[in-house]
């Protein structure tokens, strides 16, 4: 079995497993629906009270669809760091190392399969709510393609950041604090709640350069305001961030494996 076929099969199995637990998927989607409805209503009030046509260059329709995508991206994230943390603490990692699969790549493709299912369900419900509140988003086939091209690298980047946090279990008693900090930074600095254009002008270049915006803000902004140049810039930022994090993960992972072997794992 070739490399790509082997790991894509892992992702497919993960996606099917998530579809099998339909009740769990529905419960997450219902939660998303409640959250989205609240945020969308708040932004409608904000536009009405400020009596403006655009905020951050976005109309009310674009803003609500932007929030739909950012919420769908954020709430579709699987529990990568917690799973890696648990594998380390229970000793499951040592067992999985004997498999003819790379543990990091196995987790990557499992996560991608799971996340694609979650995101599709989330964005479907979110789109229905946004359509009811403000109507359809005017988007062309090219604009939709641009968005689709930007999304996978955002998921990959988020995975490696979470995987790195999970590896902290080799040295830390509890990684939940790091995970909480990471999730909150991603929500705020990544543009989940408000677009980067509404931050102070001096902060915007810094926020765009950070990897958090490449996970959330970048893909969502491309959906509401498609731009080929912006897509190229985003992909370059995503690619650079992935390379840097993967190199760091490689160093930490090899160091961690030596600890496993040293303890007879």
Question: Can you tell me about this structure?
Answer:
This protein has helices spanning 3-20, 22-50, 60-75, 80-90, 92-96, 103-134, 141-167, 176-189, 204-209, 211-215, 217-224, 228-262. The protein is 78% helix and 0% strand. The chain starts with a helix and ends with a helix. The chain is mainly α. The chain has one domain (3-262). α1 packs across α6 (103-134), α2 (22-50) runs antiparallel to α3 (60-75) and α3 (60-75) runs antiparallel to α6. It is globular, with a radius of gyration of 19 Å.
Total number of beta strands: 0
Beta content comes to: under 5%
How would you describe the oligomerization state of the chains in this entry?
single chain
**Taking Cα atoms only, what radius of gyration do you get, to the nearest Å?**
19 Å
Q: Span from first to last CA?
A: 28 Å
Q: What's the structural domain tally?
A: 1
Helix content: over 70%
Structural class: mainly alpha
Element pattern in H and E? HHHHHHHHHHHH
Give the overall silhouette.
globular
Mean pLDDT level:
84
Total helix count?
12
Poorly predicted runs are none
Characterize the largest beta sheet: strand count, sense, and whether it forms a barrel. Answer: none
Q: Could you give the topology of this structure?
A:
Layout: H1 3-20, H2 22-50, H3 60-75, H4 80-90, H5 92-96, H6 103-134, H7 141-167, H8 176-189, H9 204-209, H10 211-215, H11 217-224, H12 228-262
């Amino acid at each position: 079995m070739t490399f790509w076929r082997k790991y894509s099969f892992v992702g497919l199995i993960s996606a099917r497993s998530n579809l099998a637990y339909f009740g769990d998927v529905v419960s997450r989607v219902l939660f998303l629906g409640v959250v989205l409805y609240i945020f969308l209503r708040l932004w409608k009030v904000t536009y009405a009270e400020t009596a403006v046509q655009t905020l951050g260059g976005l109309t009310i329709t674009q803003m609500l669809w932007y929030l739909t995508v950012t919420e769908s991206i954020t709430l579709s994230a699987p529990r990568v760091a917690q799973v890696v943390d648990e594998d380390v603490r229970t000793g499951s990692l040592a067992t999985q190392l004997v498999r003819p699969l790379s543990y990091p790549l196995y987790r990557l493709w499992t996560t991608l399969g799971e996340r694609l299912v979650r995101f599709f369900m989330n964005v479907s419900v979110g789109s229905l709510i946004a359509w009811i509140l403000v109507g359809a988003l005017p988007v062309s086939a090219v604009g939709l393609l641009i968005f689709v091209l930007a999304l996978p690298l955002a998921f990959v980047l988020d995975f490696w950041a979470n995987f790195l946090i999970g590896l902290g279990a080799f040295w830390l008693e509890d990684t939940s604090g790091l995970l909480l900090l990471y999730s909150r930074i991603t929500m705020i600095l990544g543009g989940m709640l408000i677009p980067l254009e509404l931050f102070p002008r001096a902060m915007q270049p810094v926020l765009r350069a950070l990897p958090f915006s490449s996970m959330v803000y970048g893909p969502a902004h491309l959906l509401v305001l498609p731009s080929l140049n912006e897509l190229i810039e985003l992909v370059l930022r995503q690619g650079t961030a992935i390379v840097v994090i993967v190199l760091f993960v490689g160093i930490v992972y090899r160091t961690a494996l030596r600890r496993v072997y040293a303890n007879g794992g």
